Amino acid sequence: MLSYWVSIIMGIVEGLTEFLPVSSTGHMILVQALLGIPEDDAVMKTFEVVIQLGAIMAVVVIYWNRILLLFGLKKDPSRAGKRKLNLIHILIGILPAGIVGLLFNHWIEAKLFSPKTVLLSLVVGGILFIIAEKTTKKQTARELDDITYRQALYIGLYQILAVVWPGFSRSGATIAGGMLSGVGRGAAADFTFILAIPLMFAASGLSLLKSHELLTSNVLGFFAVGFIVSFIVALLAVVTFIKLVSKIPLTYFAYYRFALAILFGLYIYMS
């Protein structure tokens, strides 16, 4: 099963879906089923963590200047004397999901990682997107630096949905949560991508520590190809999404999720 074609296909799927509000988990389960990969394949589970790291690195590259600003390693004279995004926003945004993930990680993996759970989350997540688009809320944060601590907390609380419910989509939950708390769609997307960096690095790091014995020389080439493909595809996907996010309503992604749920239903019915 360690074919480089499998590595490339999985890398493309991960890179395309990890940061779009369409559920990378749902796509991964479907693609693995189509490729005939068992859901409990330990090597493939570790491989998924590795290609997820590739996708995260793409976000680090895209937001590198913003990361430097957050840590005070770069100055922005245009924001002097104005409110700006800082590390407290990031901490507030990741704490809720981080705490829930640490406390319930084993239970979530054992009980909730199933096709039926993902199918339901695709539908419910799509409904949330429609509600976020249809709900009239005055935008008080049109830019990333306008986000308040309270809004950062709201976004962090919505992020819990993706932690406890596989297939919900972390980016979708946080963008919708941001919009419902008065953050513009573009600013919510930017904040979502930045929040992903520490949270996903931590989650992926813990997963790799647990399965480090599987990182042998036999799989390094397979893993490396997937990592590189995921990085490149995620780079293109996120840059494209950032350019289009202010023009594309979440409702379009909701309809896509409903269509994917139908595919999931067929997969479950035929299994």
UniProtKB/TrEMBL annotation:
<feature type="transmembrane region" description="Helical">
    <location>
        <begin position="49"/>
        <end position="73"/>
    </location>
</feature>
<feature type="transmembrane region" description="Helical">
    <location>
        <begin position="254"/>
        <end position="270"/>
    </location>
</feature>
<dbReference type="GO" id="GO:0071555">
    <property type="term" value="P:cell wall organization"/>
</dbReference>
<keyword id="KW-0961">Cell wall biogenesis/degradation</keyword>
<feature type="transmembrane region" description="Helical">
    <location>
        <begin position="221"/>
        <end position="242"/>
    </location>
</feature>
<feature type="transmembrane region" description="Helical">
    <location>
        <begin position="85"/>
        <end position="107"/>
    </location>
</feature>
<comment type="similarity">
    <text>Belongs to the UppP family.</text>
</comment>
<keyword id="KW-0133">Cell shape</keyword>
<keyword id="KW-0046">Antibiotic resistance</keyword>
<keyword id="KW-0812">Transmembrane</keyword>
<dbReference type="GO" id="GO:0046677">
    <property type="term" value="P:response to antibiotic"/>
</dbReference>
<comment type="function">
    <text>Catalyzes the dephosphorylation of undecaprenyl diphosphate (UPP). Confers resistance to bacitracin.</text>
</comment>
<feature type="transmembrane region" description="Helical">
    <location>
        <begin position="152"/>
        <end position="168"/>
    </location>
</feature>
<keyword id="KW-1003">Cell membrane</keyword>
<feature type="transmembrane region" description="Helical">
    <location>
        <begin position="188"/>
        <end position="209"/>
    </location>
</feature>
<dbReference type="InterPro" id="IPR003824">
    <property type="entry name" value="UppP"/>
</dbReference>
<dbReference type="GO" id="GO:0008360">
    <property type="term" value="P:regulation of cell shape"/>
</dbReference>
<keyword id="KW-0472">Membrane</keyword>
<dbReference type="GO" id="GO:0005886">
    <property type="term" value="C:plasma membrane"/>
</dbReference>
<keyword id="KW-0573">Peptidoglycan synthesis</keyword>
<feature type="transmembrane region" description="Helical">
    <location>
        <begin position="113"/>
        <end position="132"/>
    </location>
</feature>
<keyword id="KW-0378">Hydrolase</keyword>
<dbReference type="Pfam" id="PF02673">
    <property type="entry name" value="BacA"/>
</dbReference>
<dbReference type="GO" id="GO:0050380">
    <property type="term" value="F:undecaprenyl-diphosphatase activity"/>
</dbReference>
<dbReference type="GO" id="GO:0009252">
    <property type="term" value="P:peptidoglycan biosynthetic process"/>
</dbReference>
<keyword id="KW-1133">Transmembrane helix</keyword>
<protein>
    <recommendedName>
        <fullName>Undecaprenyl-diphosphatase</fullName>
        <ecNumber>3.6.1.27</ecNumber>
    </recommendedName>
</protein>
